[in-house]
Amino acid sequence: DLEIFCPPGSKDAQILAELAPEGDELVFSKTTGSVFNGTNIDYVLRNMDIRTLIMVGVMTSGCVESAVRDAKDLGYGVIVVEDACASWSEELHRNSLRCMNEVFAKVKTVDQILTILAEENSEATT
């Protein structure tokens, strides 16, 4: 049996240095599959008037998919970044993306997201 629980304060529960929050970025410590269960993220996002979420993470076939489904049910627009997620196997990853795509989320690559954001930024400055 594989133990995947990481006790708070343990090395395994620490945020990787490469992903550490900067400035005023928020951190939500979740203890459930979906970040929308057991945290106040929905309340915070709504108060920040955020309507579209770009989701990444692990496990695509577990926590990511649970959070995507919950976000969609709560009325958010959702984009899953397929090459910024991972699962136990490539097959599980691909199957989960296939289940989410165009039902619960739009599935895009990092490059596609960067292009979309650059275009939106360009439109906002003209």
Number of strands: 3
- Based on Cα principal axes, name the global outline: globular
Q: What is the percentage of strand-forming residues?
A: 15-25%
List low-pLDDT spans.
none
Structural class: alpha/beta
Biggest sheet, spatial arrangement of strands: 1-2-3
The main pleated sheet reads as:
3 strands, parallel
Following the backbone from N to C, one meets helices and strands in this order, namely HEHEHEH
Rg, Å, rounded? 16 Å
Considering DSSP H and I runs of 4 or more, what fraction of the residues is helical? 25-40%
Number of helices: 4
Mean pLDDT value: 92
Distance between the termini: 56 Å
Main attributes of the structure:
single chain, 126 residues, alpha/beta, three-stranded parallel β-sheet, 3 strands, 38% helix
